[in-house]
Amino acid sequence: MWAITRLISRRIQGTSDVAVPKLSGFSILSPKNVEVEYANGTKFNFSSEFLRVHSPAADGKVRSIGGEKVISGRRYVGIMSAEPVGNYGVRLVFDDLHRTGIYPWDYFYELGSNKFGLMRNYIKTLRKHNLSREPPPRRR
Q1: Three-state DSSP class for residue 68
Q2: Phi-psi region of 73 (alpha: psi -120 to 50; beta: other; left: phi over 0)
Q3: What is the DSSP string of 70-100?
Q4: Is 81 in contact with 4 (CB distance < 8 Å)?
Q5: How many helices, marked H, and strands, marked E, lie in the chain?
Q6: Which of 17, 44, 70, 106 has a beta carbon 3.0–4.6 Å from 112's, enabling a disulfide?
Q7: CA nearest neighbour of 77 among 106, 101, 104, 98
Q8: pTM
Q9: How far apart are the C-alpha atoms of 50 and 21, rounded to whole Å?
Q10: Greater model confidence, 60 or 110
């Protein structure tokens, strides 16, 4: 895992969006936690659940309810690996086998800057549709 983190860190060149500071670090702290740091000192910690439900991928086991993108049951999802994508982002591979989301560095900044509101809205949406963050019970 550390080798992947070092490889990603070496390939970081910054972002094309002037408003987003240059990325200075990306670390998978555990399968459940990612840290992203920018040159201006801003540091964001993300849970794997948060990143999974805010995946920029169009698919990803999404339930569409009334036009809303709703992903439920991902409280305990973990990150299996991170694969650098050019100089602009990373593909996260989750243990629920979701692997199509490419997270640009500026998207991490956007997520981090709005993290609490996004999580609050996610929980409200789940409640609205009588869904849960907990995974469904396993069938026997």
Answers
A1: strand
A2: left
A3: E--S-TT--EEEEEEETTTEEEEEETTS---
A4: yes
A5: 4, 8
A6: 44
A7: 98
A8: 0.80
A9: 22
A10: 110
**How many whole angstroms separate alpha carbon 140 and alpha carbon 57?**
31
pLDDT tens-place string over residues 30-83: 999 999 999 999 999 999 999 999 998 866 455 666 667 788 889 999 999 999
The residue type found at 68 is E
* Count of residues in the chain: 140
- Answer for the pair 30, 47: CB distance below 8 angstroms, yes or no: no
From the CB of residue 43, how many other CB atoms can be counted at a distance below 10 Å? 12
Query: CA-CA distance, 41 to 127, in Å (whole number)?
Result: 35
Q: Are 105 and 50 in contact (CB under 8 A)?
A: no
Give the DSSP letter of residue 47.
Answer: E
Taking the C-alpha atoms of residue 96 and residue 14, their distance in angstroms, rounded to an integer, is 30
Burial of 137 (0-12, 13-18, 19+ CB in 10 A): exposed
Max Cα-Cα span within the chain:
53
Distance CA 140, CA 127 (A): 27
* Contact by Cβ (8 Å): 45, 71: no
